[in-house]
Amino acid sequence: MVATAPLEIPSIEPSARVREFIQSPRQLLINGQWQDAASGKTFAVYNPATGEPIAQVAEGDAEDINRAVAAARKVFDDPSHAWNTMTPSERGRLIWKIGDLVLEHADELAELESLDNGKPKGVAAAADVPLTADLFHYMAGWVTKIEGNTIPISVPYAPGAKFHAYTVREPVGVVGQIIPWNFPLLMAAWKLGPALAAGNCVVLKPAEQTPLTALRLGEIIQEAGMPDGVVNIVPGFGETAGAALAAHDDVDKVAFTGSTEVGKMIVQAAAGNLKKVTLELGGKSPNIIFKDNTDLEATIAGAASAIFFNHGQCCCAGSRLYVEKDIFDDVVKGVSAAAEAIKLGPGLAADTEMGPLVSDEQLDRVTGYMNAGQESGATCVTGGTRRGEQGYFVSPTVITDTRDDMSIVREEIFGPVVVADPFDDLEEIIDRSNDSAYGLAAGIWTSDIAKAHRVAARLRAGTVWVNTYNIFDAALPFGGYKQSGWGREMGREVIDLYTETKAVCVGL
Ligand code: NAI
Ligand code: MG
Question: For residues 185 and 176, is the Cβ–Cβ distance under 8 A?
Fold first, then answer.
């Protein structure tokens, strides 16, 4: 068993505004109407800092998914519906307004996110909420720029004939979106922003652990003036509501973020009607520090933040730290000191730097890996314990003396746990970095520019950060090689994935 080190958790009351939002059961949003689940059931949402229930939310299931998909389908298939007659400029302004309203309600959204997910409110206010607003603002700009081409064609079997051929990009249709709990509001934005920019209709299923900010965002989207039925939000469990959405025959595309295991189930569920699939899945990202780098202090801070940001609950967390031999001890010492200095507490406490993990399930999972590491003979330099008896807190953890075949080195832990190992050969470290089923992200720390680019080119990962880590932007595509996923979020790439190309050929 993993040991438990003491931790005092101050109890903090949410603001009156947030209390009002959570005091009565939150409903589903279908066809512009907030409503109970067809079954009448609700499920509890917990404060991860205390393990206490804080809200009840309508529990969507297959019947609710049917209703939501039918509402979205009806809008999409009606060419005279307000959503389909809107000009691109009007649609862009509507999406822009969602971004503006997110900023207007920034403090409330940050508080709600902190309460539901456990992350520090200050982090939600500095990262999650402004990134959410910026995503809508960025995608609003795309609406007027989704263009096709005119294409000169030759047609060998039609000598002398003239044609006017062009492509247009049309929305895919009704999109089912299934998102996780690590950045609940931001993941909703990553999914909704491009889908709406491209003119799709959506059924969004938030994670059962953290449905609150997506439901609040639903109200904001209505306030922005979204026509009824374009955005439907059905909270519920993965095995019921999520599975029904992924398998639904009237859904044209499913976009999923979560575990690689469930990603594979989504692919199978999608096979029924061969709906389009995009997946943003797990990672076990290498973070490589070369001894030539001239600012070791900044590098150590960067390596610590690469794993400890968001409590390590990031698909791209820099969870495999590879350090060139000569500086290995210094880096391990520095990252461990950074780990020990992190102030743990409830997300709503002003001085909290790291909150609890999101759920008891994740607490079991992460402490399970801490056990596995210790049992397999690795050395826990710092951390390795649960913290306190209440809530789902764990110590930021640094582990050394690992072997590449250990589960803590190969599998995604999704907690504040880094494995650190020395290297002394460039080719060896490139091979070891790539020796993973995943390929989401990688970090390189070096002062040798040519080496940085050479190594970046060799790493099989969708994002490579050089002398920085965890930099996200609405304009920068994000997604995985190998089993880290299919397709990309954000940037211009994501617009392609929410559109179909139609070729039109006119005989002249
Ligand atoms: P999960 O993959 O089970 O859940 C993610 C989403 O998928 C949730 O909305 C869930 O309700 C839904 N879901 C679950 N089963 C489904 C099914 N059969 N059909 C359709 N939808 C389904 O992830 P979970 O259990 O929350 O976390 C387990 C592990 O997954 C974590 O420890 C972490 O390693 C990884 N994970 C990766 C994330 C990422 O950002 N890539 C995010 C969350 C978890
Ligand atoms: Mg699961």
Answer: no
